[in-house]
Amino acid sequence: MTNRTGILTRVQPLTRSAAISMLALLIAYLFVDIARAAIQPAELHWAEIHGHRISYAVRGSGTALLLLHGGGDSGAHSFVRQLDLFSVHHHIVAPDQVGQGHTPDVPGPLSYTGMMDDTAALLQLLKLKRVDVVGFSDGGIIALMLAVRHPELVRRLVISGVNIAPEGLNPGDLEELRASQIPKPKTIDEKLAHLWLTSPTQAELSLPLLSKIAQPVLVISGDRDAITLEHTLQIFHALPAAELCVLPGTDHATFSGRSEWLNPIISVFLDRP
Description:
The chain has helices at 16-38, 75-78, 83-86, 112-125, 138-149, 171-180, 188-198, 207-210, 229-238, 254-257, 259-270, and strands at residues 43-49, 52-59, 63-68, 90-95, 131-136, 154-160, 217-222, 242-247. By secondary structure, it is of the alpha/beta class.
């Protein structure tokens, strides 16, 4: 046959070992497809929490795993590249915070304290204790607050792209937030922008509060994250039982952009006794 450069080439017959290897590869892909097909989609549930409705996705079986999404997203979407893998050995609960995902908004501003209280109440309603928690961005902030205020609910934590004060944001992003502020935020995007500019407060999270978290914490950051690496290192050093994972060439979107790296790292961390 002729290749794209016009040079005549000869097709070599497959050797027996090459044919076996190719067959094995095809079988492996077939089993992966079958396994994926067997995984049930997440089921959407509703709970009445603090006088308003909260939606949460449920999937898989095994030890309880709480997934806390990033700001403006949903539990199922923030971790779309983790759900298939984690639901094989974990019972996943992925709530949507107020005004985000499927959960309707409520009057007034957003607060990390309010979202953390809703999350704790949901776990108590579901009678779940000592759950593993994976939190991305805002979800990581809520995860840390949950461990500080309700240590009995948390076994291990994985957090990525987390700040404990607005000053932890990159200076350019912080300036953009300041420029975008309006006197009375109404939409969820406006409320989120106000939240990010003013929170977490010192009462919600601080280095002394982090020092009280005894549970193991895997701290993840991209080396080009929206949170400065210096701020992430402060968080890492303040936590008594922390491990650090900095991903090269990676921005804030660690779970979606680097799932092939993160998924095995997180799985090993969560599978420890």
